[in-house]
Amino acid sequence: MAVLRTFASFVADSARLVLKGGRLYYAWIAFLLVLIAVGAVAYTGQLREGLIATHMRDQVSWGFYIGNFTFLVGVAAAAIMLVIPAYVYNWEPIKEITILGEMLAISALVMCLGFVLVDIGRPDRFWHILPFIGHLNWPSSLLAWDVLVLNTYLILNAFVVTYLLYCAYTEKHYVKKLVLPLVLFSIPMAVSIHTVTAYLYNGLASRPFWNSAILAPRFLASAFCSGPAILLILLQILRKTTKLRIKDEAIFKVAELMAYTMGFNLFLTAAEAFKEFYSNTQHVVYMQYLYFGLKGHYALVPFAWASVLCGLAAFILFLVPKTRKNWITLNIGCVLIYSSVYIEKGMGLIIPGFTPDTLGEIYVYRPSLTEVLVAGGIFAIGFLVFTLLLKAAVPMMLGEFTHTKGRDRFKDAVSSAG
Amino acid sequence: MTMEQDPIPQPESCEGGCDVSRRVFLGAAVATVAGALTGCGDISAEDFLQRNFREMSKQEVQETIARLEREYKEQFGRDVYVGNEPPIPGVIFAYALDLSRCIGCRRCVYACVKENNQSRDPQIQWIRVLQMDKEEGVNLEHDTAYYDPPEVPAPGHFYMPTACQQCKKPPCVKVCPVGATWREKDGIVVVDYNWCIGCRYCMAACPYGARHFNWGEPHLPADELNPHTHYLGNRPRYKGVVEKCTFCIQRTRNGRYPACVEICPTGSRKFGNILDPTSEIRMVLEHKRVFKFKEDLNTQPNFFYFYGV
Ligand code: SF4
Ligand code: SF4
């Protein structure tokens, strides 16, 4: 009973933390809410008209939504890029901040589920996919697997984050025997969400562009650099705006790991390109469409090369210790990695898979305004979730705010964690 | 064809029943909310709670069909028969298409649209006729479905009609996350339009571009509606679900030829029971050399192409 009561006050206090903030905080939240509202209006239109409001058609039957979904599954891996050095190598400077990675994972997964939901034609039949209640075609369908692993990973992270914060709030030390196995379990889970998502495409013999054995390794390699790219920028913002102490070496360590994964990712991409272009079978057309254009259609070409160049530049910036330890070049590198992987794992993966289609037709797909607005709304939801999580978590992590301490902050209009 | 022995339409027996009244009661509220939230209009509780066709009891199938007939009557102002004739024992359907005869006139395309109640706007067509270069042979890098010469066949070209190949190992069935599409005992791959969630994974998996999505609300003028339908076949479809060729299940399970076979002016299309040694399809397999489209993918189509002359 007592536990329940404390937990209730934990929830209530978190809500109060989230509601109180500085002017900048409110402006940011308002901005996100506007984006969400615009997205919601666009989505209502899509529900009324049907998916014809998008530019997807029979030839290219998945597009921007599924591209973003795929990219965000990668971002959700960010957590384990912190967990591995922290817990496996017992590297203390990172340990305190792994919870940030887990919160990023939660937000990314919320967006993933959002993108799947807006992509399906009959959201009113969502219950058909629920195990036991509906009819989940498991183990045959990889989409069924994906539903299971994504939700497990989401629940796992949500539990760990809540538990750690609750311990901080009640000023108790967390039970290591409980947390450690869960955190370690999240490593294979993170690997599995990528593998399963890659297999989703990989298993389709109808689409030679995806039907390549190194698709899953490529997913892992690119995910392990894009997620941390966001985290690195975030860590710098947090230590400027809050009292959270994050050591330089922690940031540099993560950057070093990213250099290796980016290098590996580029190598895998090159291996794939070599196989296609050198053997030059009919299957080369998809990669040709992506990098050189096909039969007068060049829609993806500039993006494809931008992705390769950004990736290369970032790899060099992160590899050379001097540029890795320089804040300006480090941050440029993060943005470059983010852009490179966003193109590669988003539209650069989905669209060439469908172009030309299985009967040889080229349908040039570009997202419609509805798709862009709806996607904007979902990204805003993700950022909102992340902001709110941070807002409540940071003062608790710092020990500034617990069930006994820090209540006076509710009296001031401006909080230090704004 | 020896399909004359009239099958008695009887639903396949299904195990398991369910407490309909409790489900309806719980579902009514959920359905209203789901309908309102998802903009899918006024779905009734029965609509919302309808189960996968293969999991329904005989009685549930009857009730569902009665409800659908009522709904279609309301929608089109005409009586619509929704059948659920089961597969005929001892029959597996197969198709053979003579590439040397086909002239690319697309009469099959339009006969199919008419017979199978495809949406006229947005246009959905289950058959796609590809114009190929004679010099290239069957080569998907040198084809188009958008040919429009003053007269067919155009010089230097031949034609290859495609549709669902009714694969023995259908990748579309394998990937569906909710079991909304499956292969029947007579080899026809079908979709339950009331169970499909519209994720389009099957469209990504099909190597033949055979599956089509209702991107918008399907429009079918009431006077063009074919009222003789089958639950798993040509009954009018909904927005947001997938559909495909079913070998005219509503005809072939009643001993008739598919509409495309009947209409073809050159006799390029052969159809029949592959288990019957005297059938035309067996004659083709015996005396002509056939090939399967994209054989290397091991989808094992029950659809063959051949060069008759
Ligand atoms: S042709 Fe396509 S839709 Fe038809 S059974 Fe094969 S995979 Fe499925
Ligand atoms: S679109 Fe429908 S039939 Fe196709 S995989 Fe999704 S739920 Fe199954």
What does this structure look like?
The complex is a heterodimer of chains A (418) and B (309). Chain A has 418 residues and is mostly helical. Chain A has two domains: 51-206 and 366-403, no CATH class; 209-218 and 247-357. Chain A is built from 16 helices and no strands. The longest helix of chain A has 32 residues, at 248-279. The relative contact order of chain A is 0.16. Chain B folds into two domains: 17-49; 83-309, Alpha-Beta Plaits. Helix content of chain B is 26%, strand content 15%. Chain B has a four-stranded mixed beta sheet. A three-stranded antiparallel beta sheet of chain B has the order 4-3-5, with no helix packed on it. The longest helix of chain B is centred in the first third of the chain and has 19 residues, at 20-38. Classes of the chains: A mainly alpha (418), B alpha+beta (309). The site of one iron/sulfur cluster has 14 residues of chain B, from α6.
Biggest sheet record of chain B: 4 strands, mixed
Q: Termini of chain A, distance in Å?
A: 34 Å
Using the coordinates shown, work out and report the CATH topology of the largest domain in chain B: Alpha-Beta Plaits
Total number of helices of chain B: 9
Helix content of chain A: over 70%
Secondary structure class of chain B reads alpha+beta
Summarize the amount of helix of chain B as a percent range: 25-40%
Number of strands of chain A: 0
Q: Which protein chains make the most extensive interface, counting residues with beta carbons within 8 Å of the other chain's beta carbons?
A: A-B, 52 and 56 residues
Q: List segments of chain B where confidence is low: pLDDT < 50 over at least 5 consecutive residues.
A: 1-22
Succession of helices and strands of chain B: HHHEEHEEEHEEHEEEHHEHEE
Give the tally of structural domains of chain B: 2
Q: Helix- and strand-based class of chain A?
A: mainly alpha
